[in-house]
């Protein structure tokens, strides 16, 4: 693909980071974002990405969602980095602006690849896994905790999809981190879901950064229990265990230790002091988080498969209390999670 025209749909912390990396590599990139203040800040002062590998300052072409209808020429690639629950409408919104031979890749948490496929068709759909930690507390400025040297992606096509074009997306994401090509993207994304189920909402419920939560007595057992439930649900669905985050097949050969191994790899390679999860960042801003697409998906699929998921059920219950009933994230809530894991 010769200098494709790329849209990054969702220029939050991760989307802006990926977009900045692509711009630095001299790609033709348009950022599409729904936070008006962030759009205006990038237009006025550019985008600043602050990371341990050095700071980037780029001046992207950026448009607000309300300006999508003014687009003319098609995009060759659309990278979707919006929340999982926004995928369906966002992918359909960009469908008229995706070239007939273009590709749309859901670079997100959650099982969003088939949602993208429903919007743009199997020959234009690519799946992706992302492991990149970043936060954005003010418009136009991203703090990226895992720079390019410590970010990880996987790319793959669904059955019947454009497997011969995996490298088109992999080559772009390689600007932002290490990239693995996988034959079973659904299994790879479920493995990331297993990891997400252990940490994103559980640490957010405590109101703590990830490392602080890990060192809270009793928390690791909750993490492992939530992840093991997700792993068992995945097995019931038919997903094999795959190595992600740069793990080797030998490191995930012992199914009984897969969740512990992934958790140790995650904390060793991708989690830095003070970093909070996307779920806690959303709650701090008064926003709806992705819990229904993470632990909620594990619990719902568990019910369909007849697999008990008491820890994930408890996570979803507490998350809804926080979002809808005014309960505040607090370390005292760990007792409800440990009771579910007992």
Number of strands: 12
Radius of gyration: 19 Å
The helical percent reads 40-55%
Assembly annotation = single chain
Q: How many domain modules?
A: 2
Tally of helical runs: 13
Mean model confidence by pLDDT? 96
Unreliable residue runs = none
What strand order characterises the main sheet? Answer: 5-2-1-6-7-8-11-12
| Proportion of beta-strand residues | 15-25%
**Class of the largest domain in CATH?**
Alpha Beta
CATH T-level topology of the largest domain:
Rossmann fold
Shape verdict: globular
**Which CATH architecture of the largest domain would you pick?**
3-Layer(aba) Sandwich
Question: How would you sum up this structure in a few lines?
Answer:
The protein is of the alpha/beta class and 342 residues long.
Describe the structure.
The protein is α/β, with parallel strands linked by helices. The protein has two domains: 178 residues, Rossmann fold, CATH 3.40.50; 155 residues, N-(1-d-carboxylethyl)-l-norvaline Dehydrogenase, domain 2 (Orthogonal Bundle), CATH 1.10.1040.10. Helix content is 42%, strand content 18%. The chain has 13 helices and twelve strands. The mean pLDDT is 96.
């Amino acid at each position: 693909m010769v200098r494709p025209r790329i849209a990054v749909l969702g220029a939050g912390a991760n989307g802006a980071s990926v977009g900045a990396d692509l711009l630095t590599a001299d790609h033709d990139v348009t950022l599409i974002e729904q936070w008006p203040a962030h759009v205006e800040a990038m237009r006025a002062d550019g985008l600043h990405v602050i990371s341990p590998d050095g700071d980037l300052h780029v001046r992207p072409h950026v448009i607000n969602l309300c300006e999508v209808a003014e687009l003319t020429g098609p995009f060759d690639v659309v990278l979707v980095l919006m929340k999982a629950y926004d995928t369906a409408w966002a992918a359909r919104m960009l469908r008229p602006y995706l070239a007939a031979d273009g590709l749309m890749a859901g670079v997100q948490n959650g099982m969003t690849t088939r949602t993208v496929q429903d919007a743009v068709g199997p020959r234009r759909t690519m799946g992706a896994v992302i492991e990149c930690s970043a936060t954005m507390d003010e418009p136009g400025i991203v703090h990226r905790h895992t720079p390019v040297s410590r970010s990880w992606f996987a790319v793959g096509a669904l059955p019947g999809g454009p497997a011969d074009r995996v490298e088109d997306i992999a080559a772009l994401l390689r600007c932002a981190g290490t990239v693995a090509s996988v034959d079973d993207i659904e299994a790879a994304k479920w493995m990331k879901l297993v990891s997400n189920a252990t940490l994103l909402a559980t640490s957010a419920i405590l109101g703590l950064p990830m490392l602080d939560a890990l060192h809270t007595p009793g928390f690791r057992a909750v993490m492992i229990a939530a992840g093991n439930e997700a792993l068992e649900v995945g097995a019931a669905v038919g997903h094999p265990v795959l190595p992600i985050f740069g793990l080797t097949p030998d490191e995930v050969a012992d199914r009984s230790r897969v969740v512990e191994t992934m958790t140790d790899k995650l904390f060793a390679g991708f989690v830095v002091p003070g970093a909070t999860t996307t779920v806690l960042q959303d709650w701090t801003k008064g926003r709806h988080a992705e819990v229904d697409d993470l632990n909620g998906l594990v619990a719902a699929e568990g019910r369909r498969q007849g697999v008990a998921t008491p820890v994930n059920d408890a996570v979803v219950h507490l998350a809804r209390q926080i979002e809808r009933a005014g309960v505040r994230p607090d370390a005292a809530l760990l007792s409800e999670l440990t009771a579910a894991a007992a």
